[in-house]
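Incident review: delayed structure delivery

Summary: a single-chain prediction request sat in the queue longer than the usual turnaround. Root cause was a stuck worker, restarted by the on-call engineer. No data loss occurred. The affected request and its eventual output are reproduced below so the record is complete for anyone auditing the incident later.

Affected input:
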Amino acid sequence: MVSQSRVCAVSYLNTAPLVWGFTHGPQRGLYDLRFEVPAVCADALREGDADVGLVPVIELANQPDLLVLPGVSIAARERVRSVLLFSRKPMEAIESFAADTSSRTSVALTQILMARNYGIRPRVYPYAPRLDEMLQLADAGLIIGDPALRLDSSQADWKGQPIFVYDLGNEWWKLTGLPMVFAVWAVKNLSVTSTMPQIFQDSASYGCERIDEIVDFESPRRKLDAGLVRRYLTENTKFELGSQERRSLMKFLTEASDLGLVDWRSEITYIDEPAVAEME
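Output delivered after worker restart:
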């Protein structure tokens, strides 16, 4: 039964509209829902601890047997606001960066941008998302999700030194002219997916139509300014998985493969269904 399927969703704010139907709407109770950081969701799907996962898109190469649910993603056109690289040097001079251990796609994205734009391959140090410590360890610190939202994206200095802040969604847009896709719903077992695509799209549509409710609920819970939450969910984050997003996914995985970050030799497999309208 559908009610037995285990769903691992990302715990960050940007997931709230996607799961609002599951947590507050007509899809409530259909699945056994849990929340984790992106890397843990990916591991849960790999290890069989979840039937459906909201996974970082790099996992489509790391787990080539994944099937993608169509129509829904976490993406950004231009600035994403929640994937930020803080650096004591301009990007072209970075020799090392500390990377949020919750992230996988964003680490690969940083490496792609540095290699493509400047021909550099800095060292990467996995680290907890604590900016001061990151910038003591390395030239730059990569922070994603809610921890990034709590930082000032217009910050101009760090301990009296100039600091550079790069929004990596915007950097990908400038490089490719495509939206950056950060996460998709994916499954491994086709036998549990017969009704899933429409259900997951319905939950996302329900949430995207109720942003005011989400802002009122999530702002105090996450201790984030309501204005920031609203702008983030309406201006920075996009939730569709249309033709441009699919093109971007292929380009991202091809770029990652060309750099040797993943072993990518196949197409992305989407669960077949009739075309659906993109969400605003």
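Verification: The chain is about 40% helix and 25% strand.
Action items: add queue-age alerting; document worker restart procedure.
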